[in-house]
Design goal:
Largest sheet: none
Structural class: mainly alpha
Shape: rod-shaped
Distance between the termini: 141 Å
Order of helices and strands: HHHH
Helix content: over 70%
Amino acid sequence: MPVESEIIGRFKVLCDEIAGANYQNIDALFELTASDDAPAEIRDLAEAFGSMIVQVETREFSLSQVIEDLRETQRQLEEAQKQLVKENATLKTKVRRLQIEIDQSEKEREVSEIADSDYFQDLQSQARAMRARYKGTS
């Protein structure tokens, strides 16, 4: 029985380490699965714990890959956002220029509309006639 209690004590220490996410002594756990001195229940438990550790490590590796992928995606999104901010500023500048050009074009159209109207043409004729009379009287 002293050997059995020593093996149970060692198994308990290994289980405590595993519970603390310390997988450094996993080989000692796998040694218990093949130990002829260990009771069958301990060997079965060591096998089950070893299998769980492998699954946990696999998940942790997978999660670390997912986290790395997410960080890269975040970096790409931040870069895309910077590009969009830059393009947005450029577009705003172009819109302002176009607005100025449209305003200028609208102004020219309105002036042309006024200048080409019969009323304005009549006013110009009256102004020329008044200037001619004024020059003739001076």
